[in-house]
Structure formats: structure tokens, C-alpha cells
Amino acid sequence: MRYRNELKFILSKQTAELIKRRISPIMSRDRHSSGVYIVNNLYLDDQYDTFYHEKQVGSYSRDKLRVRYYNNDLSFIRLENKHKDGELAYKQSVKMTENDLSCITAGDFGFAELSEHPLWQKVSVIHRTRRLRPAAAFSYIREAYVYDICDVRITFDTALKPDSLLPGTNTPSGEDGVMEVKYSGFLPSVIAMLLCGLPLTRTEFSKYCYIRERNVVNI
């Protein structure tokens, strides 16, 4: 597994635009959808809300399981397990079908037992022992920039809202967004300098927890 550093910041719309202007000369837009796209998520948790509580208490080592696709398009769907040890993270993923997604939203994980992929086996074990279930569905708009020389990725996430896969009512609003800085090994000084002197606030903000805490529907 390849660990990467992940840093999160809360920032205003004005600060986000300033950073984009600063990094644009040396970082390119992500090749997908010209760098701006919708990220659709279905997060999974067990009957004890283990993943939710591990994030809330700040567990050093923790996991999160999610289904992810983009631009409301179900032609390419992945199941992902994101494991974090402090600020370091790695991700496992496996492709899945629309039928797999339909089963999961219905709480049916029987098909996972038939797969030999380690991630589906992990899902199967969690479901058998702790009753895995869909816990939150939401989307947001992401603008992504990459610096291929040192494998750096900076993303700006806004317009976080519940998705229609599961029932939900409250829609978060506001001008603030989340910037994520992801890199392997070290952050190049040229990029670190571009982020200096700006009103950035480090955060452990979790989109999953945010939606769970504001969704009045108990799933």
C-alpha cells in the first residue's frame, strides 16, 4: 500500500480563488471533466456507527468505506476503503456494477461473499459480524489541480449536499469550502510558498460526519 499525506483546510471562496490563481501557472487541471466535476458518495457504516465514532473521537488509525461515482453517472462505480494513520492515508478500491449498488442501498451484501477480491471479503466480514449498512449519501463539486512532478494534488470542494440515493432533508449552505492538499513524501517548496501568508485554517472536517449530523432522517 502507498501512503500519502493529506492536509485539509477550511477557506473562504475569496481565498480559494486566490490560491487557484497562484497555483495555475505550475499546476494543471485534472484531466477529468476539465478539472471540475461532481463527486457522488454513498458511505457505509455498521450497526454501531464504528466509522463515524472513530472519526469523531479522532482515532489515530481508522477506516471509511464508501461507494463513489462521478457526475451522477453510474457507468463507472467503485467501492473504496480509505485507511488513515494520522495524516497518512492509503486507499483500496474495486470496480462494481449498478446492480451491486442497488443491492447495497437495499442492505443486501450477499453478493460480496462470492467475490475473491480482498475488499469485498472485508465488506462481507464486517457485514456478518457487525451488520454493515448504507449510512449517508451526498455529493459535492470538486475542482482539482495536479502537479505531476512530485505527485501533488490540490482539490477544492464546495456545494456539499445530500444525494437522492437515501432520504435526506437538510442542505448545508455557505460560502466556505474545503481544500485538500495530497502528496507523497514531501510537499515541494514551490507549492508550499504559494500557500504561505493566506488565511487558511487546518481542519479535520469530515463530509460524512457533517451530513450525518445534519440529516434528520435516521437510516
Structure overview:
- The chain has 219 residues and is of the alpha+beta class.
- 24% of the residues lie in helices and 40% in strands.
- The chain has helices at residues 13-23, 50-56, 98-105, 118-130, 189-194, 207-214, and strands at 4-11, 28-29, 36-45, 61-70, 73-85, 88-96, 133-147, 152-162, 177-183, 201-202.
- The chain has an eight-stranded antiparallel β-barrel, surrounded by five helices.
- A hairpin with a 2-residue loop joins β5 (73-85) and β6 (88-96).
- The model is unreliable at 167-174 (pLDDT under 50).
Topology readout:
Blueprint: E1 4-11, H1 13-23, E2 28-29, E3 36-45, H2 50-56, E4 61-70, E5 73-85, E6 88-96, H3 98-105, H4 118-130, E7 133-147, E8 152-162, E9 177-183, H5 189-194, E10 201-202, H6 207-214
Provide a brief overview of the structure.
With 219 residues, the protein is of the alpha+beta class. 24% of the residues lie in helices and 40% in strands. The protein has an eight-stranded antiparallel barrel, surrounded by five helices.
| Low-pLDDT segments | 167-174
Strand content: 35-45%
The pLDDT mean sits at 90
Total helices: the number is 6
- Shape assignment: globular
For the largest beta-sheet, the strand count, sense and barrel status come to: 8 strands, antiparallel, barrel
Count of individual beta strands:
10
Strand order of the largest sheet: 1-6-5-4-3-7-8-9
Radius of gyration: 18 Å
- Separation of termini? 33 Å
Helicity, in percent? Answer: 10-25%
Structural class comes to alpha+beta
Secondary-structure element string: EHEEHEEEHHEEEHEH
